[in-house]
C-alpha cells in the first residue's frame, strides 16, 4: 500500500529512525564520492502554489543525486489554476510520475490529492504543517548533539506550521519541547490534543520566551508572519514584542545552545542580526 507524508503523525518512531539512518548513510556516502542511484528511472512531481527556495532545491537536487528526475510545476502553469478538480489532476499525475510533493495553502488540498492519488504524496508545506523541515532539523540535531534524547528544544515565536510539526514530532519521538508563543498566536488546541495527554509531560506551552529558553540546548524560531499572512505583519510586530531571539534571551539557554531557523529570516524581527550571523 502506498504511504503518504502529510504530517509527522503519519510516521511511527521507527519510521523516523529509519529515515535518519538512511539519510545519514546516504549523506556520508555522497561525501565520499559514492553516488547511490537508488531512484534511477523514478520521477517526482513538485506542485508548488507558494514560494520556495530551500525545499524546492532540496527535493530537486535529491532526485538528481539519487538518479531520479524532478518535474517542477507552479500551480499557475497547470490546469489547477483553471479550476480543474484536484482529484482529476491527482489521478492523471499518478499515471505518469512515481511520487508527488506539494506545497500549498490549504492543508485539505494535500489530503484530497493523497486520497485521489495512487502514488505517495509528500507535504512540502501547507498552512498547517511542514513535516520535511522538521525531519531535516532533527537530523541536524543528531549531527550536532549526537542524538535527540535529552536535548531540550525551545520554540520561540508564532504557533505556525513549523511549530505544529515540531509538536507532532515531539509527540511521536518523546522530545523535550517547550513552545513559547504570544497568547493569541499559540499552537491551537486541535494540534495539542492530537499529541495525546501522555505527551504533555514532555511538551509544554508558555507565553514567556524566557521560561522556554531556560537551559535549552536548541532554540528555534521562524518568521512572525508566514506566507499568506504578510498583511498581518504590522499588527503582529506588536503582539510578538519580547519574542525576538537575541543575545540577551540566549543568556538563559545552555552555553552551547544551537540556534535554528527554517529560513527565510527577517533580521531584526524574530531574530537579531547578531544571533543569525553568529557561529
Ligand atoms: N512559517 C513559514 C515557513 C517558511 C519555510 C511560512 O510558512 O512562510
In round numbers, the mean pLDDT is 97
How much strand?
A: 15-25%
By oligomeric state, this entry counts as single chain
Report low-confidence residues grouped into runs of 5 or more: none
Number of strands: 9
Distance between the termini: 44 Å
Q: State the helical fraction.
A: 25-40%
Structural class: alpha/beta
H/E topology pattern: HEHEHEHEHEHEHEHEHHEH
Number of helices: 11
In the sheet with the most strands, the strands line up as 7-6-5-8-9
Attached small molecules: norvaline
Task: Profile the largest sheet.
Answer: 5 strands, parallel
Radius of gyration equals 19 Å
Please explain how this structure is put together.
It is a single chain. With 279 residues, the chain is α/β, with parallel strands linked by helices. The chain contains eleven helices and nine strands. It has helices spanning 13-31, 54-65, 86-94, 107-116, 131-145, 161-173, 189-194, 209-213, 233-239, 247-250, 273-276; strands spanning 43-48, 69-74, 99-103, 121-123, 152-156, 176-180, 203-206, 218-221, 258-261. Strands 7-6-5-8-9 form a five-stranded parallel β-sheet. The chain has a four-stranded parallel β-sheet with strand order 2-1-3-4, with helices on both faces. Helix 3 (86-94) crosses helix 4 and helix 5 packs across helix 6 (161-173). The longest helix is centred in the first third of the chain and has 19 residues, at 13-31. The model has no long low-confidence stretch (mean pLDDT 97). The site of norvaline has 9 residues, from helix 6. The site of norvaline (NVA) has 9 residues, from helix 6.
